[in-house]
Amino acid sequence: MCEHVVLIFFCIIAIIKYKIFAARFISRIFYVNLHPNWIDKMKNNIISVLLVVAASLMFNACLKSDDSDVAYYGDTAITAFSLGTLNRTLHTTSSTGEDSTYTSTVTGSNYLFEIDHYNGLIYNTDSLPVGTDASAVLVTLSTKNSGVVVIMDEDNTAAEAYYSSSDSIDFSSPRYFRVYAQNGAGYREYKVSVNVHQQVADSVHWTQLSTNSTFASMTAMRSLCMNDDIYLFGVVGGSSVGYVTPVSDGNKWSALSSSVSLDGDAWKNVITQGDYFFVKSGNGIYRSGDAQNWEAIAENSAVKQLIGASTTELYALGTEGGLLVSKDNGVTWSQDILGDTQELLPTQDISYVCNPLSFYENLDRIVVVGNRDASVGDSTAVVWSKMIEYSEGADPGVWYAVEKVEDNRDNFLPKMQSMVAVPYDNGILAFGGDGMYADSAAFSHIYQSFDNGLSWEKDDDYQFPAAFSSSKTVFAATSDSNNFVWVICGGTGQVWRFRANRLGWKED
Questions:
Q1: Which of 170, 152, 172, 148 is nearest to 161 (CA)?
Q2: Is 459 within the bounds of a domain?
Q3: 364 vs 346: CA distance, rounded Å
Q4: Which residue of 158, 222, 248, 281 is surrounded by the most CB atoms within 10 Å?
Q5: What is the tens place of the pLDDT at every residue in 20-68?
Q6: What is the DSSP letter of 369?
Q7: Is 188 helix (H, G, I), strand (E, B) or coil?
Q8: 452-459 contacts: CB < 8 A, separation 24 or more?
Q9: Does the residue 248 lie in any domain?
Q10: 32-41, 196-205, 226-235, 496-505 — which one is most confidently predicted on average?
Q11: Which residues contact 435 (CB under 8 A, 6 or more apart)?
Q12: How far apart are the C-alpha atoms of 166 and 171, rounded to whole Å?
């Protein structure tokens, strides 16, 4: 339209010029006295008037053209997605022990949603808190190029409704959204999932597995995890025996057939390093990949008890006191370096934790937790720690005892019968039989340390279940790669495992 007006404008100019020439020609033929000034004036006036009219028409036409031309886009997408306020039902216990519920709210906009255009997915990676009601949710969303959003029915077979920010949507299960392009050429489809936690993050879930009569008869026991299996070593009839179960089972245990005769102290001398077990029986030190076929490593009467391992070293109590270290897989042993007096070393109920440090690939921290002899009269356990760097040319590590302050026992681990400690949740969990204090009866508390044994606290989230029953002096514990802690009970043969709920959630 605009181009046509411009063409007419130039045509008018041409006609005007033509008429002026025609007027002059007629005046000459018919001798009409048309004054030249009048002709020029007429020319100028007509041209001016027509130019103004033509310009007005041209611009008016062009403006109308811009207003009437509409561009319809063929592409669209959902570009933003968020939730409104949601209701949440919480459970509580009254002072009389009765269960009750109350309602609170959750600010949905605090939970960010990922939009995966390639796979057509919209979801929140950080799940909403347990108890959140997702059956009536208000949604705020944006689209590219003003696409029109339609919500499909739960079977994704037909359109249910047009999206409106004021209409609630049921997200009890995933829903499908379609956003249509303006020109009707097509649409994008998204599967929208509103994820809600089904478990309280900090609560701990216990599971009781099958009771084992053999375990009930053991007079001592120790448990270890190797790869995807749980091992139990204990004493039956004065000799050490072993059993194994996959971490995925725990109900059926297979007896280990040892290629060497294990004495009555071998159960507490079993440690692991890498893919190998090490054990001391008599004066012999043995190594095995399956805890059954043992290879003799050395005979060494200076080793009293194997107590732990780091990535490159094995550790033992010496018969003459102090700590021994082996840097060649148990073949030779030498005195390790102590930064404190050896009288503070544990002599019984010894557990060890080895944590490679994430910020430096060639550095381990090993923590040894145990008790001294009852004759010493300790009220707290003893904890020793060592940093070991195994890069070439590194200085040897030094063992240090955690300082004990008797008048501030709330921060320390109490001495408990047959105490065990396991690595868990980037820290250490410890528990045991009867302690030295009135508030530390057998299995009354599980203690937790997040600073490598420097301080300990009673964690109320870790409570033994009412059905838990065990000998106060014979039990074992270990942790696996799935964040479960296994507890095997002497006296009853019960087998339990527990896990903090949040440690079982998948991380994306």
A1: 152
A2: yes
A3: 21
A4: 222
A5: 444 454 444 444 444 445 445 544 555 554 554 454 555 454 444 444 4
A6: E
A7: strand
A8: 452/355, 452/365, 452/367, 452/385, 452/428, 453/367, 453/369, 453/383, 453/385, 453/402, 453/413, 453/428, 454/383, 454/402, 455/411, 455/412, 456/411, 456/412, 456/413, 456/430, 457/411, 459/429
A9: yes
A10: 226-235
A11: 414, 415, 416, 417, 441, 442
A12: 15
What the block records as the tokens of 467 is: 């059905």
- Residue length, the chain? 508
- HSE toward the beta carbon, residue 322, CA cutoff 13 A: 12
In this structure, are residues 149 and 78 in contact, taking their beta carbons and an 8 Å threshold?
yes
pTM: 0.68
* Dihedral (CA of 15, 18, 24, 29) sign: negative
Q: What is the pLDDT at residue 39?
A: 46
Q: Residue 446 corresponds to which tokens in the numbers above?
A: 């599980």
Residue 83 belongs to domain spanning: 78-193
Residues 368-392, buried b or exposed e (16+ Cβ, 10 A)?
bbbbbeeeeebebbbbbbbbbbeee
Among 68, 87, 117, identify where a domain stops.
68
User: Within a domain: residue 334?
Assistant: yes
- Asked if 378 contacts 356 with a C-beta cutoff of 8 angstroms, the reply is no
H or E element, residue 9: helix 2-29
In this structure, the answer to whether residues 225 and 186 fall within a common structural domain is no
